[in-house]
Amino acid sequence: MDVTPTHRPSLALLAALLMGLPGPARGEDDRPADRLPGAVEVLGVDGRPMTLEAPEGGVLAIAFLWTPCPNSNQYSPTLNAIAGEFGTDRVRFVGLFVDADLTDAEVAAHAEEYALGFPIGRSGAVRLARELGVGTVPSAVVVDDAGRIRYRGRIDDQFFDLGRRRQVVRSHDLKDAIAALLGGEEVRAPRTEAIGCTLPDFGPGG
Question: Matching PANTHER family, A to Z (predicted)?
Answer without folding.
Answer: OS07G0260300 PROTEIN, THIOREDOXIN-DEPENDENT PEROXIREDOXIN
